[in-house]
Design brief:
By secondary structure, the chain is of the alpha/beta class. The protein has a single domain, classed as Alpha-Beta Barrel (TIM Barrel), CATH 3.20.20.
């Protein structure tokens, strides 16, 4: 099994490329990498599973050579098994799929591992944590959606924090708990208090005057809570 670069427990800031300036993707990626991002979050939308369409495999192929950041690829699509290999070949390091569209999660998890990707599962706001109970121990990452999937810039759903807390109690130290949606200076500490350690932030980073300052602020606030929790 490939080494999991996310296995070490620590705070990770994962700017979501969906909020970037798509006419300047090379510059945007270099700004967040030099600005201290740990991961770049890639929201893939197909217009079927979610109503919006974002970007896909050709874009990932083009941006892979311009950054060394881990590509955390979030497939908000139907039939993730059908497209997973192409995303990994294009440069995705980790693949997160939605449990709601997969009938045989164990088969997909095994397939993704054979492709050399880390494996994540994502839960929509209306999907309870118990729905992933049987395969929770088999994944590297759990992504809790704190907005409805499909669009950036939405308001943080505070009532999802109970789900984060519930899942945090069940995960091993090498498994990551990601919160995706509405993360900013006002919500980041609440997410970490609940148990998240991987924080997806789109608008808060890419729409800031200086993304590096935004990343530093989010990290400082998150690590202040993290250090207290792990002391």
């Amino acid at each position: 099994m490939p080494t999991n670069p996310l296995a070490q427990p620590r705070i990770r800031i994962a700017p979501s490329l969906l909020a970037s300036d798509f006419s300047q993707l090379r510059d945007e990626l270099q700004r967040i990498e030099t600005g201290g991002a740990d991961v770049v979050h890639l929201d893939i939308m197909d217009g079927h599973y979610v109503s919006n369409i974002s970007f896909g495999i050709p874009v990932i192929e083009k941006i892979r050579p311009v950054t060394k950041l881990f590509f955390d690829t979030h497939l908000m699509i139907d039939q993730p098994h059908r497209y997973a290999e192409a995303f990994v070949k294009a440069g995705s390091n980790g693949i997160t799929f939605h449990t709601e569209v997969v009938t045989e999660p164990f088969e997909l998890i095994e397939y993704l591992r054979k492709l050399g990707a880390t494996v994540g599962v994502s839960l929509n706001p209306k999907t309870p944590a118990i729905d992933i109970e049987q395969y929770l121990s088999h994944v590297d990452l759990v992504n809790v959606m704190t907005v409805e999937p499909g669009f950036g810039g939405q308001k943080f759903l505070s009532d999802m924090l109970d789900k984060v807390t519930e899942l945090a109690k069940r995960l091993r130290p090498e498994q990551r708990l990601e919160v995706d949606g509405g993360i900013n200076e006002e919500t980041v500490q609440r997410a970490v208090t609940a148990g998240a350690d991987m924080l997806v932030a789109g608008t808060a980073v890419f729409r800031a005057p200086r993304p590096a300052d935004a990343i530093a602020t989010l990290r400082r606030q998150a690590e202040a809570v993290w250090k207290h929790k792990t002391a």
